[in-house]
Specification:
The structure is a single chain. The chain is 35% helix and 24% strand. It is α+β, with helices and mostly antiparallel strands. It has one domain: Histidine-containing Protein, Chain: A (2-Layer Sandwich). It has a 4-stranded antiparallel β-sheet with strand order 1-4-2-3, covered by helices on one side. It starts with 11 loop residues before the first strand and ends in a 9-residue tail after the last helix. The N terminus and C terminus are likely disordered.
Length: 110
């Protein structure tokens, strides 16, 4: 999705959470987050330790160095922002296996 700096977001959702995945953000987790972001109609970012990264790039996600217990902020701007943030939130709470097997886990949105 291509956006300009002047474009106004119709719907923006932000979720603050503590990452609960075991260990660090793996290649598999990063790939799934990027897939969720790229399949959405929203611009998606993840913030950790004061820096903001695009969630659409596996390499950018791997550079974040998120580990269990870290505070992260997931933001999405677009028509499916809530669903996108919720999906990434579930992944960061339970990892890939939990995400793939969980239909009802819905972290609260801030």
């Amino acid at each position: 999705m291509t956006r300009t700096n002047l474009e106004i977001c119709s719907k923006e959702i932000t979720q603050r959470m503590v990452c609960q995945i075991p260990g660090e953000l793996s290649v598999e987790n990063s790939a799934l987050i990027a897939k969720i972001a790229n399949n959405s109609n929203s611009r998606v970012t993840i913030e950790s330790e004061g820096s903001t990264y695009t969630a659409h790039s596996i390499l950018k996600l791997l550079s974040i160095d998120i580990a269990k217990g870290d505070l992260v902020i997931i933001s999405a701007c677009g028509e499916d922002a809530e669903e996108t943030v919720r999906s990434i939130g579930v992944l960061l709470m339970e990892g890939v296996s939990g995400y793939l097997h969980s239909d009802s886990c819905q972290p609260s949105l801030v």
